[in-house]
Amino acid sequence: MPIYDYYCEPCNLNIQIFCEIEERHDQTCEKCKDFLNQMVSVFANTPARWGDSHGYFDRGLGCYVANSMERDKIMKEKNLRPVSQNELDDHQSAVDNEHTQHEKEVQKFSSVLKATGDFAQATKQTFPDHHPLADPEPFPLGSDLGTIETKTTNKDNTP
Ligand SMILES: [Zn+2]
């Protein structure tokens, strides 16, 4: 699903929307409910060297690019090296994969959460390889606990 750039005149706002290609002309402003002007329309008649008629959001450049000519121009302005079609394809499929992956994670997360009602469990099952909020190391019992207490006591008694 591509990202499209819009401009709302009444609100004087630039807005980015993720939507299907067929839905790109039917987007409305969340604030004023006015139909949005798709910014890419400015470039709609510019011949696109890659046969990409709707343009795309270029994360590398951090802006919307209608076609290769537009991109070349921005690259020149920013003094950036050219990127090959392969790199662009890789980039695009990486973006697509990332998006698919994200959708899968959202689905997984909500289904586990629904089934268990356990937020931590849903996180754990959705991201088995990541433990950004993992439980701390099990609290040391027995002799280890004694060590900690001793250390604390010593520290407290230090003048
Ligand atoms: Zn608006």
Short description:
The chain is of the alpha+beta class and 159 residues long. It is built from four helices and five strands; from the N terminus they run E-E-E-E-E-H-H-H-H. Among the domains are: 3-38, no CATH class; 97-134.
Question: What do these coordinates show?
Answer:
This protein has 159 residues and is α+β, with helices and mostly antiparallel strands. Helix content is 42%, strand content 13%. It has helices at residues 68-78, 85-116, 119-126, 143-157, and strands at 3-8, 13-18, 37-38, 56-58, 63-65. The strands form two sheets. The chain has a three-stranded antiparallel beta sheet with strand order 2-1-3, with no helix packed on it. A two-stranded antiparallel sheet has the order 4-5. Mean pLDDT is 73; it is low at 41-52 and 145-151. Residues 8, 10-11, 29, 31-32, 34 line the site of zinc ion (ZN).
Question: What labels would you give this structure?
Answer:
13% strand; flat; alpha+beta; binds zinc ion; three-stranded antiparallel beta sheet
List the helices and strands and how they pair.
Layout: E1 3-8, E2 13-18, E3 37-38, E4 56-58, E5 63-65, H1 68-78, H2 85-116, H3 119-126, H4 143-157
Helix pairs in contact: 2-3
The chain binds zinc ion.
Zinc ion is lined by residues 8, 10-11, 29, 31-32, 34.
Proportion of strand residues: 5-15%
Strand order of the largest sheet: 2-1-3
Please tell me what the overall shape is: flat
Radius of gyration, in angstroms, nearest whole number: 26 Å
| Class based on secondary structure composition and strand pairing | alpha+beta
Number of strands: 5
Distance between the termini: 65 Å
> What's the overall average pLDDT, rounded?
73
Q: Strand-and-helix sequence, N→C?
A: EEEEEHHHH
* Low-pLDDT runs: 41-52, 145-151
| Unique ligands | zinc ion
The main pleated sheet reads as:
3 strands, antiparallel
Query: How many helix segments?
Result: 4
